[in-house]
């Protein structure tokens, strides 16, 4: 006797099934969050409208959305490179901080009268990108070496390394790089070192262009280059990769280096584009939210950009909502994390197919193939 | 500051007493996490669970003034949170790392939303009802040992008792054996008739209960207030203690004391105004933990072999 929900041996992995279940999860997350809006006496539709109006219907708000999206996108890209290579790296808070510190240090060196003195803008920017990429890359690369050569768990080591990086930052801004004053922060970076603003009348800066370039490069690396293919094979099955002649240890270290470098760039973008000084607490959890962005983009480098802009925009909209309607902006944390958790849960749905004929007659003998692999029934998520 | 001052007994007493005090909550959370990890589940979500426990205990203590009920509610909240986490880890078989990390963000959102929803801009008292250090006649008056060991709140003694109990349960009972088997070789455990899923649920629930209690510990015995950042990092420190203590409840006591000692020394040195950067001391336990799990010293064999891998029955 056929069941309405038949278990598949393998999950349906057609693009339609993936997109369908993801969409269902997002809708479910929004419905659940609606109850929170209701508790504030706000109409959910109006609340969502308010949440997205500021970042996506006003130029100023969109500029802020891009400002917040740039570091998120870079960290998400780093997540993609490492996770698809089979390295569950979680140390982006650390890479972010190290990259930001490296860029700020370089920028302070180019202040008039400092050791280097003013540099031409393009030269400084190139140097800053190289230095912070190398610094973040080296920071994460160590974890890659430990995993590849010694077999230590990269999950736990990279989490612990975050704290070490944060203490290094605290030391720098309260000691050697500290500006006179009461707060633990550096002096403002020289104006010539700031990333150029790209949209007149907004705070949007060139960091988003950097993120777009990085997304394109990561896509080319993973989709079009033999090296990227080797990384992905390593991620799928290390034994198979080794039999195919891939130097697994070297690929893991490279993946960690690239991921850390992208994390370091995220820090550079934040410090040169938005904060214009280095201070304690500059990361504020962005290293973890970036991972969430990558997960919601399903580890696809192209999808990272819209997802990061959406996330950046939601945080801008939430701040506006808090100012105007006194609804706490922390609701977006709930919305964002529920979305990912429900996407994870919705993956279970793809293990089932719906058998429409069984809906009508319980005696139906021949089960029919459901094309979209059980995208219905998602309300259970 | 002269060497004599550092070695003066007043300094040592303050430092040791603060070390023990700071070690308490993270040790408690680490004890539960040991069970979860011994069963094969890396519960990164304790960071968020601790925060929820802290909020629950704060609110209950604020409204009822009863610390014991506040503690109980925090434990219940911890268990409820971990029912969800365990379902994700064990039944849905989602990535443990992703689930835990994302849950922490969810918990942060829930905690700060609920806090504002319930209290709004209400004026709050300076402090809520808290556990006070208990004074044991004669023992607390002993020089040196008295203030360090016998001037603490009841929660510390409960935590130490739980450490001994945890060690017994883990290594001397059938349940402990089944749990460790599920974490080392779930397939073998399964064929020996152990329900791996059920055992892992219990492990995660234990870690949730102690995490909720650890949040209450911070609020009810140390701070007396609630802030979003009040427990930030405690869960990850507990993870470090589990590793540093090599997945052994009694060794975790030593590991927690080491972490507490670095933290407390850094605080005391700041008061005395030395030139040693505080961050160096703060980073030290993390560096040691990283070295301990790097595999440099062959410690990989200690980690439960099936840690982080969901068990899918063939």
Strands of chain B, count: 0
The termini of chain A sit apart by: 26 Å
The coarse overall form of chain A would be: globular
Task: Say what oligomer this is.
Answer: heterodimer
Number of helices of chain A: 14
Biggest sheet details of chain A: 2 strands, antiparallel
Instruction: Describe the largest sheet of chain B.
Output: none
Unreliable stretches of chain B (pLDDT < 50, length at least 5) are none
Structural class of chain B: mainly alpha
DSSP helix fraction of chain B: over 70%
Tell me, rounded to a whole number, the average pLDDT of chain B.
87
Quantity of strands of chain A, as a count: 2
Percent of residues in helices of chain A comes to: 55-70%
Cα-to-Cα separation, first versus last residue of chain B: 66 Å
Largest interface: A-B, 46 and 44 residues
Number of helices of chain B: 13
Gyration radius of chain B, to the nearest Å?
20 Å
- Overall mean pLDDT of chain A: 86
Question: What order do the helices and strands of chain A follow?
Answer: EHHHHHHHHHHHHHEH
């Amino acid at each position: 006797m056929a069941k309405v929900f038949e278990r598949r041996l393998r999950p349906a992995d057609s693009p339609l099934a993936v997109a369908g279940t993801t969409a269902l999860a997002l809708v479910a997350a929004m419905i659940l969050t609606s109850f929170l809006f209701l508790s504030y006496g706000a109409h959910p539709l109006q609340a969502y409208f308010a949440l997205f109006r500021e970042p996506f219907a006003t130029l100023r708000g969109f500029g802020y959305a891009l400002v917040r999206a740039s570091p998120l996108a870079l960290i998400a890209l780093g997540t993609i490179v490492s996770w698809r290579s089979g390295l569950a790296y979680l140390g982006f808070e650390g890479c972010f901080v190290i990259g930001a510190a490296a860029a700020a240090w370089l920028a302070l060196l180019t202040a008039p009268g400092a050791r280097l003195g003013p540099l031409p803008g393009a030269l400084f920017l190139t140097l800053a990108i190289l230095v912070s990429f190398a610094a973040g890359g080296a920071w994460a690369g160590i974890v890659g070496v430990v995993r590849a050569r010694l077999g230590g768990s990269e999950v736990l080591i990279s989490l612990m390394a975050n704290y070490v990086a944060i203490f290094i930052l605290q030391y720098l801004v309260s000691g050697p790089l500290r500006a006179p004053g009461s707060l633990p922060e550096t002096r403002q970076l020289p104006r010539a070192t700031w990333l150029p603003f790209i949209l007149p009348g907004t705070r949007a800066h060139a960091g988003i262009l950097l993120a777009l370039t990085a997304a394109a490069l990561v896509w080319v690396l993973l989709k079009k280059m033999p090296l990227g293919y080797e990384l992905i094979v390593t991620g799928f099955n290390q034994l198979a990769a080794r039999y195919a002649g891939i130097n697994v240890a070297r690929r893991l270290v490279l993946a960690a280096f690239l991921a850390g470098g992208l994390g370091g760039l995220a820090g550079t973008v934040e410090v040169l584009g938005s904060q214009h000084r280095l201070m304690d607490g500059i990361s504020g959890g962005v290293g973890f939210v970036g991972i969430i962005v990558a997960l919601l983009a399903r580890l696809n480098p192209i999808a990272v950009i819209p997802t990061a802009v959406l996330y950046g925009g939601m945080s801008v909209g939430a701040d506006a909502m808090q100012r105007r309607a006194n609804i706490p902006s922390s609701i977006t944390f709930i919305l964002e994390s529920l979305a990912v958790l429900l996407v994870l849960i919705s993956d279970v749905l793809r293990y089932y197919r719906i058998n429409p004929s069984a809906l009508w007659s319980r005696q139906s003998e021949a089960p029919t193939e459901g094309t979209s692999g059980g995208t219905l029934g998602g309300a259970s998520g | 500051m002269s060497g004599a001052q550092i070695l003066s007994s007043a300094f040592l007493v303050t430092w040791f007493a603060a070390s023990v005090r700071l070690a308490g909550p993270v040790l408690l959370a680490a004890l539960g996490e040991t069970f979860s990890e011994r069963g094969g589940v890396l519960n990164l979500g304790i960071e968020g669970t601790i925060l929820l426990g802290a909020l629950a205990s704060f609110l209950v203590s604020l409204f009822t003034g009863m610390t014991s009920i506040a503690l109980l509610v925090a434990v219940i909240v911890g268990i409820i949170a971990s029912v969800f986490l365990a379902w994700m880890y064990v039944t849905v078989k989602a990535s443990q790392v992703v689930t835990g990390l994302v849950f922490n963000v969810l918990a942060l959102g829930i905690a700060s939303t609920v806090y504002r929803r319930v209290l709004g801009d209400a004026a709050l008292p300076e402090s809520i009802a808290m556990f006070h250090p208990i004074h044991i006649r004669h023992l607390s008056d002993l020089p040196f040992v008295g203030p360090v060991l016998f001037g603490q709140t009841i929660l510390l003694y409960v935590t130490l008792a739980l450490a001994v109990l945890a060690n017994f349960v883990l290594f001397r009972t059938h349940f402990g054996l089944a749990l460790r088997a599920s974490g080392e070789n779930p397939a073998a455990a399964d064929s020996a008739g152990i329900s791996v899923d059920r055992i892992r649920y219990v492990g995660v629930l234990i870690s949730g209960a102690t995490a909720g209690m650890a949040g209450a510990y911070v609020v009810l015995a140390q701070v007396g207030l609630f802030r979003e950042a009040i427990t930030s990092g405690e869960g990850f420190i507990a993870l470090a203690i589990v590793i540093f203590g090599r997945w052994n409840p009694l060794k975790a006591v030593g590991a927690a004391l080491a972490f507490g000692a670095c933290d407390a020394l850094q605080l005391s040195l700041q008061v005395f105004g030395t030139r040693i950067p505080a961050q160096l001391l703060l980073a030290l336990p993390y560096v040691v933990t990283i070295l301990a799990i790097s595999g440099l010293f062959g410690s990989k064999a200690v980690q439960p072999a099936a840690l982080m891998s969901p068990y899918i029955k063939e």
